[in-house]
Design a protein that fits this description.
This protein is an alpha/beta fold and 355 residues long. Helix 12 packs antiparallel against helix 13. The relative contact order is 0.21. Strand 4, helix 9 and strand 5 form a beta-alpha-beta unit. The strands form 2 sheets. Strands 5-4-6-1-7-8-2-9 form an 8-stranded mixed sheet, with helices on both faces. A two-stranded parallel sheet has the order 3-10. It has one domain: 3-Layer(aba) Sandwich (Alkaline Phosphatase, subunit A), CATH 3.40.720.10. Bound molecules: zinc ion. Zinc ion (ZN) binds next to helix 12.
């Protein structure tokens, strides 16, 4: 009898075990990648600037094509072959599709903060690694029995983790030269840790995205977390350095990383057909020669974009929907995908962008 009672007691809990059908979500952010390159590919005047491109001829061979449609395909083939055909994209201003940050700073930490908390706090205006005092949607996921202990973050830049960290959140995260945090320590993860130790700290508080990619994809395979935020940063760093060819290479490499992550998940029965992929950015950058900068005084750097793919997402391609959309709506979108009861601080419910 006791055993029966125990089984009856455990049954609801067993439903939460690994074989369940609750949604899985992979969030990928690409720091400071402009909508201009996402939707139109390389920009000719920037591509031809010998001060900002080491080898113009070679870079043109890689990324220059005669039409924007061909250029964007050359730059981000996974986005345009897969996301555009099976998912949806918002933010092509040339088609009147507008998305932007709601904060006035147009810099990273306030962008990630509004993305995860669904609110704009005017006092959050810097990039320092300070815990975010506000409730965030991943914290709510991590407190939900369906996702508890199954929310993980890997980021390149140190401050990203603090967008989702406060006293209560306890979301495992690894950023900026920290080792992997997988529960299952595979030989690959140990090797990547070792390689990270040997890397020069080129950007100080940000490691190269190749490490973020390796940690993320290997942790997805080994641990099967239900929710992962992968935060890439190379594009923003190379842009600040005014190296347009490196910036394009980073966009192209990130596209390939996303392709690998998507294919790894969709060939794993834990994720296959159960996973939604949300890809977005934290801010835009200036137009033309202002491309390297972003911030409150850089016109156009409020512009953001968003892509959705996978479970529950209709194949709408480039969609106008009913914008303008705001980056703070990403929190509501995450809540919708994960079926969470999430109300941002202050009580203002925002509309999810999709589904
Ligand atoms: Zn930046």
């Amino acid at each position: 009898m006791k055993r029966l009672i125990l089984i009856l007691f455990l049954m609801p809990l067993m439903a939460f075990a690994k074989g369940d059908d609750f949604p899985r979500l992979v969030i990928i952010t690409i720091d400071g990648l402009r909508w201009q390159e996402v939707f139109s590919g390389a920009e000719e005047s920037l591509l031809s600037n010998t001060k900002e491109v080491r080898n113009v001829e070679q870079t043109r061979r890689l990324y220059w094509r005669h039409t924007p449609v061909d250029r964007r395909m050359a730059l981000m083939p996974f986005v345009w072959n897969t996301v555009a055909k099976q998912g949806m994209l918002i933010g092509n201003r040339n088609l009147g599709s507008v998305m932007q940050v709601a904060n006035k700073t147009n810099i990273s930490f306030p962008g990630y903060s509004e993305m995860m908390t669904g609110i704009v706090d005017e006092d959050i205006k810097g990039n320092d690694p300070i815990p975010n005092p506000h409730l965030n949607v991943l914290e709510v996921a991590n407190q939900d029995l369906r996702y508890k202990g199954s929310v993980v973050m890997y980021g390149s830049w140190k401050s990203t983790r603090y967008a989702i960290h406060n006293e209560e959140a306890h979301i495992p995260a690894s950023v900026s030269y920290e080792k992997n945090i997988a529960k299952t320590q595979t030989p690959v993860l140990k090797m990547v840790d070792r390689m990270m130790e040997g890397m020069p700290h080129y950007w100080g508080s940000e490691h190269f995205d190749a490490f973020t990619y390796a940690y993320a994809i290997e942790t997805l395979k080994a641990d099967h977390p239900k929710v992962m935020w992968i935060s890439f940063g190379d594009c923003d760093e190379w842009a600040h350095a005014r190296k347009y060819d490196f910036y394009l290479d980073a966009a192209n490499a990130t596209d390939a990383f996303i392709s690998d992550i998507y294919n790894a998940c969709e060939s794993d029965k834990f994720y296959k057909g159960k996973t939604t992929y949300l890809i977005t950015c934290d801010h835009g950058r200036g137009d033309g020669d202002q491309w390297a900068s972003h911030g409150s005084s850089t016109k156009g750097s409020e512009a953001t974009w968003l892509m959705l793919l996978g479970k529950g997402i209709e194949p709408k391609g480039e969609t106008l929907n009913n914008g303008p959309f705001f980056t703070k709506q990403v929190a509501a979108t995450i809540a919708r995908i994960l079926d969470l009861d999430f109300t941002p601080e202050g009580g203002a419910q925002l509309l999810p962008i999709a589904p």
